[in-house]
Fold each of these.
Amino acid sequence: MKLQNKIVFITDADSGSGKAIVNRLAAEGAHFILNSTSGGEDIESNLQLLKAFGSKVVVTNINLCKSSDLEAMLEETARQLGTIDIFVHNNNVVKPASVETCEEQLFLEIINANAKSAFICTRAIGKQMSAMQSGKVIYVSSIHAEKPTGSSFAYSASKGAVKMLCREAALVLGRDGINVNVIELGPVEGDQEFFQSDISTLYDSYQYKVPNANLGSHDDLAHLVLYLSTDEARYVNGADIRMDGGFLMHYMDFKMKRP
Amino acid sequence: MSLAGKVALVTGAGTGIGKGVAIALAQRGAKVAISYNSSDAGAKDTQEKIDEIGGESVIVRANVAYKNEIDTMVKQVAEHFGSIDILVNNAALQLNFNFYDHDEDTFDRLMNINLKGYWQCIQAVVPYMKPKGSGRIINISSVHGKRPTDFDTVYSMTKGGIKMLARESAIELAKYGITVNTIEPGAVNVGQQGTKETKPIVPAEVAEKMKKEARDIRKKFPMGRNGLPSDVGSLVCYIASDESEFMTGSSIRIDGASMLL
């Protein structure tokens, strides 16, 4: 049990990645604060599983861009569960946004969901962790912090911002014994739907662009989150870890390993 | 390398890097729109310097945090000079707030100017570049799009966003012959500037100490000096020229190798 009695806060627990991470960390004895936009409805079966694992769980549904809401929640959960040891920012709003035609409202929606919430949460939770002189902050981000999508500039800009947040927070929070890292996840099954593009061919036959032709899953992501959550990763700080099976290394189409 | 006949719009051209860029463009024969928000006197000074070298310029005002002001500014420039060939996105805010001093409001202010403003300026000039089948968009970012500042987290978040905005814009606008590139300056001597609310990057006592240790400048800047607005201006002029036609989606660090130490 690598995370016995550790308190984990995960955002967007309703997502596929959120569920996989929760399940993996629960198996290691963690307790949870889950921010669920469905108010827990969409994660019923996961909550049952957590019960079986013996995990204590608080389900919240707050605006992650609002410090006052966040601070009130942290105060309340500190009473119920204890202070947060591990923060996993897992927001991933992907919507098409063209540089030429995007509306301001959509741009801000994506930036706020993916980047502003990461900053506001880190700031609030970082204070709590600094008082304890320990903690782990993990951002689940995307390879599109480096590689343009050709379909949503606002998405990749938000992920580029999170990359810099990670580097800054690694310095500031690092001085208080907190590790801050970002995972830049590559394609998992179904991602081609989110990144349909007239410009970029990145997602054409994307599964074969992973050199061994095996796509990763959210379970792979969960394993890495677990590692970064433990003290085995104490010397990993300010790192952006690309986790894509070598997808972004792809160059020569004719050398792809096809079935 | 002549830019004769080209029209350039430079935001934040009343001070610092923007002023240097505007003058450099005028030196190569470009007609320059000097855009400013708060430094009225600075914009006039830029215009006077361009007058002195026999250049052509016009002053326009816009707060790039607001789309309607951007649209009005761009329309004004296009009407005055007949077109827009070059956009230099440069107007940016840096608050130098500690990590925990930032809040929702400061986040929004920086994001609205530095990232949203850059994007909406691009969006506003594209309709003027599209029919010509060519255009140059040059984003002045910072070495802090890659390396953290340790003095303004949200500032570097905006710069990390600009990196991706530029890459996406490059692949999206390539079909119109518009190139989009990014310049990442290191520390540049910009003289007296800033507003009342911005805090000095280094506390006074540290600044004093640094002054005494001026001989050690090579330990920070291998070339023995930090950058000047004109250094950035020369690079802008190359990217703005027809000679750079095939370069797009690139970032060029210009810092006298300071980031390599």
Amino acid sequence: METPKKSTSKNEEFQFVNLDEVTAAQSGVAQKSLSFHEKAWHQLKHNHAAMVSLIFLLFIAVVSVASLFWMPHDPNAQNVSLSNLKPFTNGSYPLGTDGLGRDMFSRLLYGTRISLMIALFATLVDILIGVPYGLVSGWCGGRVDNILQRIIEIISSIPELVLIMLLLIILKPGMVSIILAIALSSWVLMARLVRASAMQIKSTDFVLAAQAMGESPMQIAFRHILPNTVGVIITRTMFTIPAAIFLEALLSFIGIGVKAPNASLGTLLNTGEKGFQFYQYQLWEPVLVLSLMMIAFNLLGDGLRDAFDPNTRGEK
Amino acid sequence: MRKYIIKRLLMMVLTLFIVATLTFFLMKMIPGSPLGNTMKLSKAQQLAVEKQYGLNKPVWQQYLSYMTGVLHGNFGMSYQYNSTTVASLIGHRVGPSILISFQALVLGVIVGILLGCVGALKKGTWADATSSTLAVIGISFPSFILAILLQYYLGFKLGWFPVASWDGFPSTILPTIALSAVPMAQVSRFVRTEMVEVLNSDYILLAKAKGLSVPQVVSHHALKNSIIPTLTLIGPLAVTLITGSMVVENIFSVPGIGELFINSVLANDYPVIMGLTMFYCLLLCGILLLTDVVYGLVDPRILSKEKGEH
């Protein structure tokens, strides 16, 4: 049934291609990996939830950066005569004020920026430790891999939050400690994923070919293995960031994270919870910002995972 | 199988030894003193207190006596609660934590499996969309905020459940629900993915071709094969539950080890912190080993793979 159909559309099956393009496509691995990422991008573009999340997160990022230069009020300026204003009742305080008369909108802007900063730096440290670790472990294999994996096993036998708190009590309180504590407890997963990915790539033919052509192990690791783990790294990052935001909020909520009067989403939740019986908006506002950001990161992460993982490609 | 378990047990002992050593030296590095405001104590009182807790000896002697103590299950005395050993403190507090974590696990796994199956079987419909949305929200929405909201609206406003008391089953309901959200979401996503894969496999096609009805296919073939891999989630779920229980216990004033841990951290109660860290590690290692063994028994292919790796 299908053969006659095909023959009628024969001309459409062929297309004229520039000779340059053909040779370009044949010449380099870089070209191929680019097309893989293009494919991933193409797939991601058709994932509405992920795209809406991406736009939302970009918006949050832009607003956070903009709030560096301009905020309606000083987030720490107290004005007791205007305390606990309900949202939408005073034109100059659109989201109301808290118990000390501080502008909620400015505090949210500031808190979101601090939370995002902590999360981004923690994720950066996480990548800086996890990726080389996983790469060395997966690429070297053998005894090195064995030792590195045992170390990971030991670290991951301490529950995440316990490890973070242990680190937080020995480090000086402050943002840097929070960033380090979160990063030092979360890099393990990144290392595991990069290792698995490196081991998989190691057994491919193009690595064999590179070895046959006499490339040094370092060259292969950086030129072939690392670029091919980028998908895994980006996807994992999209899950590390919300996890870090969550951990920061949790720590500050308990009272061992960002300290007052500095605001992060966690400290805002903490103050909001104390007055929740009377001023519910003071908790609901940071809750909304936090959970929307978490949902957006998770949806984007899911989208990226589907886009980068050929196994789940085309299946929703 | 026995060789594998012995190997894992040895690794576990080594892990616990290293964790104990690390926590001991970490605690020694902490700035600040457990004696609190030392200005208030006279020199003689300070020395007396230090002697009572063995803090006047050199560090290596403290380490040795601590490690021998650990071997005998003796983690020393709490600084915070007078004349209570860490072991008895943990012993008294572990019950409520295990109770709510276990209830949350059971609730989360059951609801999660149901949601995941609905999602996979009704793929692409509104039911699938609902279950997927619930899963995303469950994973994204911080459990401690859920706990606050549940406590306020269901406990305080509506008065359906007791708030901030620990008295029988009713007071465990809200903490359990708050804790179960993340396991529910994780399990439901996992089961959905597995189920979709299983439903696309050849043996399901064969079962359908044999003329089995959809419920038969699901109950006889698909369900078992999609749920068994869920066992691999138990490890991550245990970590989630430990993390979650700390804050949730704090919010609901559950007299459990999570609340104890946070209080000890806030009060610099090192012996309790060290004891609980060891306890959590032991718990986590034990759970991981147990799930691996059970998984190996249920699905022997996994064990042979693991053996090759180790």
